[in-house]
Design brief:
The complex is a heterodimer of chains A (85) and B (171). Chain A is built from 3 helices and 2 strands, in the order αββαα. Chain A is an alpha+beta fold and 85 residues long. Chain A has a two-stranded antiparallel sheet. The longest helix of chain A has 8 residues. The N and C termini of chain A lie far apart (36 Å). In chain B, strand 5 and strand 6 form a beta hairpin. Chain B is globular, with a radius of gyration of 15 Å. Chain B has 4 helices and 8 strands; from the N terminus they run E-H-E-E-H-H-E-H-E-E-E-E. The chains are: A alpha+beta (85), B alpha/beta (171).
Chain lengths: 85, 171
């Protein structure tokens, strides 16, 4: 329900949600463009689209993003840390 | 594509998530004399690990993390099966799921047994494939309930019986 409300709101404005909750992501209707993964790599923050394995899991409907998060598989493809401005 | 072998592990314990990097690195260095890159481990609980469809999905995901040389490695309890050959058969996923090789030289099955929790692998044997070019081998590391660790490869007995479902250039 929360996700539906967020998607509804996104029809009128940009919505950015950060969460540690895999339950919020337990649906099979996510588009890859809706998701970004965040990870701390050697003390630096890396944000990016899902890596090749995660993207494959969603495209082939193998796992929900929530299942990937529970198994620590929701990883960003980008390898470079985000630089502070 | 990288020349460094990449191993993408699937494990069933929290401790193994950390330990697998040490184990694989050590096996690679001491047995193969090479550095092996270990991808992010995929952790299953023991129940899902024993469901073939769940294991197959995890293998599919982990296979996407292997570019070039390497493979998917499944580390699970042997459920009391002490024989490496029986373990290899027990752990083999559905036919044709994932043909892999570990490095550029070992295109044949290897069985390595440890009886001291992976500190040493005193029994190592290689088996030359009966048919040249048969690369239906798959690698596994398994740990039994008493802590013995087995590194095994299983393979198709004949090249003509190996059904290749993935592109040779990668999946």
């Amino acid at each position: 329900m929360l996700l539906d409300a967020l998607r509804d709101a996104s029809e009128r404005r940009q919505v950015i949600v950060t969460s540690h909750s895999p339950d919020l992501l337990d649906r099979h209707d996510f588009d890859l463009s809706e998701l970004r993964a965040v990870r701390s790599v050697s003390g630096a923050t890396v944000i990016g689209e899902l890596d090749q394995a995660g993207a494959l899991a969603l495209r082939e409907d193998l796992h929900t993003p929530g299942e990937l998060l529970r198994t620590d598989q929701l990883l960003p493809a980008a390898s470079r840390p985000v630089e502070a401005q | 594509m990288t020349s460094t072998p990449v191993l993408a592990p699937i494990v069933e314990g929290h401790g193994e998530v950390v330990a697998i990097r040490q184990l694989v690195t050590r096996v690679g260095y001491e047995l193969l004399g090479t550095w092996i890159e270990v991808a992010q481990p995929f952790r299953f609980d023991s129940g899902k690990m024993r469901k073939p469809d769940e294991l197959a999905k995890a293998i599919r995901v982990q296979a996407a993390r292997v570019h070039g040389y390497g493979g998917v490695l499944v580390l699970r309890d042997g459920d009391g099966v002490a024989c490496p050959v029986e373990l290899a058969a027990l752990l083999a996923p559905s036919q044709g799921l994932l043909p892999v090789r570990v490095d550029q030289t070992h295109m044949y099955p290897i069985v390595a047994a440890s009886f001291d929790h992976g500190a040493t692998f005193p029994q190592v044997s290689s088996i030359t494939l009966p048919v040249s070019g048969n690369w239906g081998d798959r690698d596994f590391i398994a740990a039994s309930r008493n802590g013995d660790i087995y590194l095994t490869w299983n393979y198709g007995p004949s090249a003509v019986e190996v059904k290749l479902l993935c592109s040779p250039a990668g999946s």
